[in-house]
Amino acid sequence: MKRWLTILVAILVVLAAIVFSATNTTTVALDLYFTTCHLPVGVLVIASLFTGCVLGGLVLYPGVIVPLRMRAANLRRELDRRQAPPAP
After folding, report:
1. What CA–CA distance (Å, rounded) separates 73 from 79?
2. CA torsion, points 13, 17, 20, 22, in degrees to nearest 10?
3. How does pLDDT run across 18-65, given as a tens digit for each residue?
4. Which of 3, 49, 55, 71 is the most exposed, fewest CB within 10 Å of its CB?
5. What is the pTM of this model?
6. Residue 31 CB burial class (10 angstroms; 0-12, 13-18, ≥19)
7. How wide is the angle at C-alpha 65 spanned by C-alphas 63 and 68, nearest 5°?
8. Which one, of 65, 59, 62, 26, lies nearest residue 42 by Cα?
9. Residue 20 in contact with residue 42, Cβ under 8 Å?
10. Which residues contact 23 (CB under 8 A, 6 or more apart)?
11. Is 51 helix (H, G, I), strand (E, B) or coil?
12. Residue 40: helix, strand or coil by DSSP?
């Protein structure tokens, strides 16, 4: 059930992005100092949101997720050690 809900939400987000980019077709110039790109506003906004999510994930993963996984592994090992029967 949860998987279907996730798929449905993902499809709705993709459809909303398509509608957003289709309705915002005004072309703007994006100056990146070394080059200039001319893109529609909708594409530029969606691309910047995607880039921000990827960069945020790249910062979050080593700073938060890896330490939490290491802590969880240490706690599992300690729990297994405490639950193991004592050696005779």
Report:
1. 10
2. -130
3. 888 888 889 999 898 899 989 999 888 888 989 999 999 999 999 999
4. 3
5. 0.66
6. exposed
7. 105
8. 26
9. yes
10. 42
11. helix
12. strand
